[in-house]
Amino acid sequence: MDRRHMLMSLLAGAGALSSDIAREPMLAQEAAAPDPSLYIPEAHLVDDRKFLHDFMTDFPFVDLVTAAPALRITHIPVLLDRDRGRFGTIIGHVSAKNPQRTAFDGGHGTVIVFRGPHGYISPTWYASREAVPTWNFSVVHASGRPRAITDAAQTRAFLARLVKTFEKTVGSDFDLATLPESYVARMVQGIAPFEMEIDALEGKFKLGQDRSAADRDGVLTHVRQGSYREPSLPDLTETIYRMRPPK
Fold first, then answer.
1. Regarding beta strands 147-148 and 79-81, do their DSSP bridges make them parallel or antiparallel, or are they unpaired?
2. From 137, 208, 216, 239, which residue has the greatest number of CB atoms within 10 Å?
3. What domains can be seen in the chain, in order of their start residue?
């Protein structure tokens, strides 16, 4: 996926959605929600549930943040069931050896952070003369209280779906069922799966949608050209391989 094209699309989409919010308030923040997990100026708020769910599906590698047994952050891929619960349900797993699994008791407040495209924005891109550099980014925070999945059949079904979902994204047809049952059983024992019904969704899309039309045009022009480059997954993988040759 071209992250600059995604940033460009999100900038246009977030601007349109901001006007939609004024006409038709959405449900992502209604009723008694947990305390906000991040500061969101009104101009950067996006609470269209479908847009947020689409974003979460497009960027499923998340930061799982809990305060048990202490402040912990684990980085994992997750699945989203859009229609389970008021705002959807997230399913994932950590290592069975990860102390963070103690938070999966239905009583610990948790934030799962979905991160999208981001990049440095130069003030030279704006039509406005008085401007400072900034960093544009996009995130969705999903808050809830995760519960452990203890049913063996449910765990197997989750793993099969997880593998199938992400194998499809890389054009592969690998199937978990092709592995020996004894091997899969050992692997299952090594994970701590959970599900978390979402109590609140917070979408922050700081993409310059609060700026003038001329400034927006300048941002879009330069993020399309994209002289700024961050290391890609192939770049980083090759670097680490060089740092740590096989034994």
1. unpaired
2. 208
3. 3-243 (2.30.110.10)
